[in-house]
Specification:
Blueprint lengths: L3 E4 L2 E4 L7 H13 L3 H12 L3 H18 L2
Antiparallel strand pairs: 1-2
Helix pairs in contact: 1-2, 1-3
Length: 71
């Protein structure tokens, strides 16, 4: 299972089930940034269930993900 793929020329993210809430935040935030409406909706649901500390950790995970993907 890959974490991202190309669909109609737009890179989208698919979250493996085993990822943590913090990693989920990072992947959904990336998908939302790439204009994936499902990712944007899932990002909001994830944010609603996160503590402030988890959100900070999610932002850190997103920065690492962006670096890994060269974004």
């Amino acid at each position: 299972h890959t974490r991202y793929g190309t669909v109609t020329g737009v890179q989208t993210c698919a979250l493996p089930i085993s990822e943590s809430k913090i990693e989920a935040y990072a992947w959904f935030a990336l998908g939302a940034r790439l204009n994936d409406p499902d990712a944007a909706n899932n990002l909001q649901l994830t944010l609603d269930s996160m503590t402030a500390t988890e959100r900070e950790a999610g932002e850190s995970a997103l920065r690492r993900l962006n670096d890994e993907l060269g974004l």
